[in-house]
Amino acid sequence: MNHVTDCNLRCDRSDPRGVMNDKMKLLDELQVLRLQLLAAAEARGSLTDPEVLAISEAADELIVTLQHIQKNELNR
């Protein structure tokens, strides 16, 4: 299951604490990906290296998931 699909499960929860815990976990995961992205880009010397792009795409998916959560929080 990818982050976007997983968001559909998270975003429909009625318990705000559950969503907040999920959001914090996703933010932690995003931070890990950010650090991996920086390290990979530096090690590979290219922003277009397949490994760098894969990490970047994973981070993008996570950001979209977080945006969905934020949007649903604002619509409550």
From TrEMBL:
Xref: SUPFAM superfamilies? BAS1536-like
User: Which InterPro entries does the protein's record reference?
Assistant: HLH_DNA-bd_sf (IPR036638), Spo0E-like (IPR018540), Spo0E-like_sf (IPR037208)
Q: Per the record, a Pfam family?
A: SpoOE-like
Transmembrane residues, as ranges?
Answer: none
What is this protein's name? Aspartyl-phosphate phosphatase Spo0E family protein
Give the taxonomic lineage as stored in the record: Bacteria, Bacillati, Bacillota, Bacilli, Bacillales
